[in-house]
Each structure stands twice: as C-alpha cells, then as structure tokens.
Amino acid sequence: FQCIYKLKLSKFPLLSRKEVSKEIHGQKRRIPQNIANFYVTESEHGKLNIYYYEKSTWEKLSDGITRSLKDQSYECLDNASVAGILRKRSFGFSKVRLCPKEAGARPIANLKTPSRFCIGRSSSLNRMSGKCRKGRAPNGNNRATYFKSVNTVLRDLHLVIKDVKSKEPERWGSTVFCYNDIHRKFRLFLRHLKEGQAAMPVVYLVISDVQKAFDTIKQDKLLTILNEIQMVDKYSLQKSNEMFCRKKCVWSFEDVKLMSQTDSSGCSEVMSSAHRRTFHTVSVNQEQSRTIRREELLLILKEHLKNNVLKLGQCFFLQTVGIPQGSVLSTLLCTLYYGHMENTVIAPYLAKGANDVAKHSDSGCVALEATTDASSLFPKSMLL
How confident is the prediction for the chain on average, in pLDDT? Predict the structure, then answer.
C-alpha cells in the first residue's frame, strides 16, 4: 500500500500493533467458547469462509448422514468386526469428517494420519512386529494398537502403478493429468482438423460429468482390470531423505524411489514419491533399499479396496461399493476403471470422424466436428 497508493499504516489506528495485539488476544479468549458451543467448519460452496453450527443442529445433521450411509453402499461394523480386519494388516482405518453442502453434507475421509484401536490381547498381534506399536488406551484397561496411515502403506503401490502408467498409457484411455496433457491433446486435434481445409470447421465441445464416479465403481471389476496389468515379480525400492529450507524453518521429507536394474552397474531411478525441488534442498541418500513382491502389492491393494474401514464419530463402516476417496491411489484407480470402459465400450463410437476425448477423473470433454452425428453417439454412451 505504501508503494502503490502512497498510504502509510500510521494513518490507520486500527492497523497499529497495539490494536492488532488486542484483537489477537480477544480471539484467543473467544476460541474456547466457540469450541464449547459451536461446530466450526468450512463449506463446499464457500471454502474461504468459516461456518459456525450450534452443537444441537450439527448433531441432527450428522445423525442424518450416518443413517444415509447405512442405507447406501456402507455396512455398519461392530468393534469385533473392526478388530478382525485390523489384525490381518499393517494399516488402520480412515477418519471421516462432514463438509456441508447445499443439500446435506459430503463425507471426506482422511487417509493421511495414523489410527489407534483397542483390539485386545491376541497372539496374532505379536507376529506384527514392526507394523504397529502399542500404547495405553483411554480407559486404561486394555492396550491400544497404533497403525500406520493408509497412504503410508499405499506409497509403494502408488509408485508401481505410476510406473505402469508411464509404460502403458493406453490403459488409461484419454485421461489427462495436468494442463500440459490437455494442451498436447487438443493441439494435435486442431492440427488434424486443419489438414487439407481452407477454413476452420465448426467444432462442438460436449462437457460431461460422471455422477458419484468413485462411489459406483465395482470393486471386483477393478481388481480384474488390475490383474491384467503387466507387473514384474519383484520391485526394488530405495529410501532417502530431503532437507528443505524455507525461510527460517527446515523441513524433512522421506522420499521412496522405484529403482530399475540396468545392464551396467547399479540401478537407475524410475519413479520418485516426492516432488522435485531444485532450490534450498539437500538430498540425503542413506542407501536403505528393500524389495517388494508383486503378490504383496496385490494383497495390499485388495485389502484397501475390499476392506475399507471408515470411522464417523463413534461408528465404524465398511465400504461395499466404490473405492476410497482421498488416498494416493484414488485418481489413478478411478481413471483406470473408466479408461477401460472407454477403450472397450465408447471408443467404437468415436472411431469415425475428427473426434477427440479428454477426461480427468470424473469429468470429460468430447470434441466433435460439425459433420459428426452426435445424436447417434451420446444416447448410447450416456446409458452406460
């Protein structure tokens, strides 16, 4: 403001340090009162705003969502069933919060944080060394088991599927993952349109959206598609750490790299789990490598899809239809599923004429030349 409008902050008493400090201390006093009487959250239609719901109003809203989950593709679980599922794997469950929207609320799962559950004393727990750790439960009687977050366990599988996508992109159909992919696809489409024509022909763009794309995916069909992917029997992974300096703080990130054997000495890097940083970053390679077999990856994937346990409030649910949203695999699995549908069902209708398709997750765009009979295409494909 001082440079652009030639205004000085000293002319505004409300922006002085003394007034700002008073406001901050006032907020600190009001926060405990707000937490005690209101449920504070954001909203889907106003993400930059903060909304306050009275506790009684929010309880009625959350109870309605809980009942609707039971009527949809979710099965209510008791503690014994949850314990039986968690005993067999190294990752836990995801906690769900509700994000209000115009009609009701959308459940959003958090798969990034570890979870804790008291599954009782069992001999099977002793065989899970290195997979979880124990701590005292809130009631003090039994011991609670801490499990890794879902995304932490899926990280290796995420690297492998990304490697498969780079080698076999046709399995994902016309999926685009970034703006560069969109530009590259439509640039080729426009070049094809202009070939041999004096004027630019008329083009129609049809925008589509798949309703409940993640929640309607058939799990067994997706597993069948994944079993058809060409995966090697064993993968080599290498762990390293990145130290990233930002202002006055130093951040440490764990990076896992998928390695490939070369004809010469050593291995070459194929895929990395961390974003590449070029400035103020030091990479520490401690030569910690390990291998994981194809059977282990498929077992983790099946467990993630078929036994997705969610916790909403004090209730546990098992997702019976659809795939989890919020995991590192969500977008890749969703686009792979609809890419298979595109290649086997929709592609024959787009074979004629100068047509092109670009889709991202549950949204799609079909470019049609004016000479294409769109009425013969969309009534059939929209019924799928």
Answer: 76
SS3 content of the chain, % helix, strand, coil (to 5): 40, 30, 30
Query: Which pair of structure tokens corresponds to residue 201?
Result: 């022909």
* 39 phi/psi in degrees, rounded to 5: -100, 120
Contacts of 237 (CB under 8 A, 6+ apart): 156, 159, 256, 257, 258, 259, 289, 290, 291, 292
322 vs 369: CA distance, rounded Å: 35
DSSP output for 101-132: -SSSEEEEEE-SS-EEE-----HHHHT-TTTE
* Nearest CA-CA partner of 92 in 115, 74, 73, 122: 115
Kindly report the length of the chain. 384
Buried/exposed code over 218-233 (b: 16+ C-beta within 10 A; e: otherwise): ebeebeebbeeeebee
Separation CA 95–CA 110 (nearest Å): 5
Residue type, 323: I
Query: 271 - beta bridge partners?
Result: 258
Indicate the SS3 state at residue 345.
helix
Amino acid in position 176: V
Letter for the amino acid at 151? N
Task: Give pLDDT tens digits for 103-135.
Answer: 777 778 889 889 989 876 443 433 333 344 444
pLDDT at 21 over 70: no
Distances (CA, A) of 62 to 52, 67, 109, 214: 14, 9, 15, 22
pTM for the whole structure: 0.74
Secondary structure (3-state) at 230: coil
Distance separating alpha carbons of residues 374 and 350, to the nearest angstrom: 10
